[in-house]
Sequence to fold (148 residues):
Amino acid sequence: MLSHEITSIAGGHKKRKRIARGIGSGHGKTSGRGHKGSLSRAGAGGKLGYEGGSMPLFRRLPKRGFSNYNFACRYEIINVSQLDRFDNGAVIDVKSLFDAGLVNSIRSKIKVLGDGELTKKLQVSAHKYSKAAHGKILSCGGEAKIVA
Fold:
């Protein structure tokens, strides 16, 4: 092999070890599992994180503080410019936003932000509004209801 024949992916793909394919393969008979013992049997493998009786890594590391991840209230963001695609006088709620493909789930909590322009009179039902969004919806003659 010459230096100009080497590419960035040379050696980047290693062939998998084909076990239990006969003596000539070098991985036949016991297929790399050795003789007898629990690790030679099917279904053996041990518990996740078990380190042979040593204290597992996740128990050795300090755990500090509080994580709000499981309790945080997350909102999906909608801008007033995205609401402009609906017809004049339309009633907009979470279901209509989901049907339009603007939110990921019908159980999503919605916050409307004031980016962009709104030219239509709409009845919007959402969980939260920014001051700018609330003002833009009302200035077009629409309603901004807060869902409990």
